[in-house]
Structures are given as C-alpha cells and as structure tokens.
Amino acid sequence: MAEPKAARDPGAEIARLIDIMAELRDPDRGCPWDVEQDFASIAPYTIEEAHEVADAIERKAWDELPGELGDLLLQVVFHAQMAREAGMFDFADCAAAISDKLVFRHPHVFGEESRDKSAEQQVRDWEAIKAVERAGKAERGTLDGVAMGLPALTRAIKLQNRAARVGFDWPGAGEVLEKISEETAELVEARDRLDAEALDEEFGDLLFVMANLARHLKIDPELALRRANAKFTRRFRFIEAALAEAGRRPEDSDLAEMDRLWDRAKAAEKAGRAAE
C-alpha cells in the first residue's frame, strides 16, 4: 500500500467537490452531458460504482479503493445537486439525515443506554429501533421498505430475514436442502412439459431457496457468486492460454479437450494453495 498522503481537510474537499458538481450542472457554462442527466439516468451509475467499490475490496486493491470510493461519493453529490436545483434537498440534508439516523440507532453509544449487552441483544434492539422508524413512515407490513432496486439475490436475503424475524423460517439448513430438492424436481417437471412460463417461475423459486440456504449457512450469496465468476474466469483463461501455445483458439477445440484443460487449471490452483 502506498505511503499515506499529507492530511487534507475533509470539509474543504467535500465543499470543493460540491462546487465542482454545481459548475458541471450549470446550464450556461457546465458540461452538456452532466446538464442533461436526471435521477433516473444517474441511478444505474450509482449502482455500478457501488459494485466497483465491492470489487476493489474483494481484490484487496487498496490503492484503487480511494478512487472507487470517490466515484461513489460523486454519485451522492450528483443526486444532491439535482435535488438542490429542484428545491427538494441538498448535500447537507443527506449528511444530516444519516448522522441523525446513526445517533438514533446507537443509544448505547450516544445516549444513556449501557454498552454491556451481547451482539444478539444489540441485533434485537437494532430491529426494534428500525421498527419504530418504519412505523413513522407508515410502513406496517413486515416486508415494507425492502428496496425494489436491490440486486435480486440481496433483496431475497433481506426479504427472508424480515420474514424470519416474525417466525416464518425453516429451523435449519437441512430443511432448506430438502426444499431445494423439491424445487429442482419441479423445475425438471416444467422442463419436461415444455412450459416456458412455469420453467421461468420454477427457476426463480430455486434461486430464491438457494439464497435462503446461503442465509442459513451465513454465506453472502452475492460475494460467493462473484468469487465463482472470478474462478471461472481464471480457469477459462488457462484454457485459452494452453490452446494458444499450440496456435489454437477455443473454437478450434472441443468440449472434451477443454474439460481436460479445465481439470488441469483446477489441479494447478489446488497445488498452489497447498504450497502457500
């Protein structure tokens, strides 16, 4: 990791960023692209930047992380600037909202409650506090407030966690595995019937139950899938490199040969881990 730079004034740097964003959005002197944007057009970039932060952390690319976090911060400033122009709110309101929420949700730190409690008790207290917040927003249902725009796997986990808090949950991973077998059989049945609509539905049910298994095993399914994607990428690139040594490409090969090369890549990875 690079040597830390000289300390900067966070407030001054945030103020500078806010001023830059205001200049970019100026109808007369700003950037035409920035001026044309709205909340809906910027939202996908906000999601993308959050994923890039997660990717840098997963790769332990600490030298890239400040830049990726800066890109994510820009998204907040961009939305806040558009809201300020519309007379709705500004960046200070965003900062005040999260500060107020943190103080309210941590009475054992900022209030008079004792910090002498277990992690389990803190989770229960946290949920009780959030229930009060949801009541203030007229969110009465157990599943109210789980954002529709979340990645599907993440939203599945949040929905299942909410339902589990009121007792709607399997006792353990064993029962979830049984449900996976049941959903797999239903998926095969839909495939054999050539029922495209049912096939889509049953596949979704299977993914939902797989997310529930991850929850019971305390696995982050998004992270697990990202790692599986990275593993697939490494091994397929091994196949491409091995074929390239013979002056060939994957389309010049066949499944049997590429499968053998895949096994070689897998064995090489295991040997590398054993040598560490």
Automatic annotation (TrEMBL):
InterPro entries: MazG-like_dom, NTP-PPase_MazG-like_C, NTP-PPase_MazG-like_N, NTP_PyrPHydrolase_MazG. One of its GO terms (biological process) is UTP catabolic process. GO terms for molecular function: ATP diphosphatase activity. It catalyses: ATP + H2O = AMP + diphosphate + H(+). Its EC number is 3.6.1.8. It is an enzyme of class 3 (hydrolase). Residues 37-110, 177-235 form the NTP pyrophosphohydrolase MazG-like domain. CDD domains: NTP-PPase_MazG_Cterm, NTP-PPase_MazG_Nterm. Keywords: Hydrolase. NCBIfam families: mazG, PRK09562.1. This is Nucleoside triphosphate pyrophosphohydrolase.
